[in-house]
Amino acid sequence: MGRLVVIEGLDGAGKRTLTANLTKALHDGGATVGTLAFPRYGKSVHADLVREALHRGHGDLADSVYGMGMLYALDRRGAAGEIRESLDLHDVVLLDRYVSSNAAYAAARLHQDSSGEVVKWVRELEIDRFGLPVPDAQILLRVPREVAAQRAEQRAREEADRARDAFESDSGLQDRCGVVYDQLAAEHWLSRWFVLDGVSGVDAPALAAELRSL
């Protein structure tokens, strides 16, 4: 059974880059690696509904914190079998976003902290009811909100399919989400967390070695 490792952080934190660098470092160390990113746009009807809602489709759907949270959760529920199969086949499975993203963003939207009711709801829904695999470790890639926003803006200019959505464009939401992420990491919510500086860079080989020793 492989180790399930999740990379979390604000939009523009550099999760995709860290996934690539960490995958290479793990491969260089002799490990097999599987990867998956959420939401699974283009692969899951629930993820596609999320994207459409975030770009002002489906009326006021995006205004419903619990409605959007349910769509995110259903996207992951649909991938549960794929995650388990990947864990059977690989030493490490890296996920770009997972359950903690739902908890952090939902709490931030409702102006709650990590002890709020919506974080409890996310855990009961995704872990207890849907039975999603619990991570062995979670990585919080911390960057100042301003840096994350600049990166997201640059990405939107350079990649036609990466236009900023309603959540990415809301600076207040991103600030509050960063606070909740810090709280979840401090509590080691669901599993052990590693908090890394996403500005100065991450030593991927050293991190890979630590993950292999879990």
Automatic annotation (TrEMBL):
Biological classification of the source: Bacteria, Bacillati, Actinomycetota, Actinomycetes, Pseudonocardiales
Gene Ontology molecular function: any one: dTMP kinase activity
Annotated Thymidylate kinase-like domain residues: 7-164
Gene3D superfamilies assigned to the protein according to its UniProt record, in alphabetical order: P-loop containing nucleotide triphosphate hydrolases
Source organism, top-level taxon: Bacteria
Sequence similarity: Belongs to the thymidylate kinase family.
InterPro entries given in the database record: P-loop_NTPase, Thymidylate_kin-like_dom, Thymidylate_kin_CS
Entry's EC annotation: 2.7.4.9
Keywords: ATP-binding, Kinase, Nucleotide biosynthesis, Nucleotide-binding, Transferase
Pfam families referenced in this protein's UniProt entry, alphabetically: Thymidylate_kin (PF02223)
Protein name from the UniProt record: Thymidylate kinase
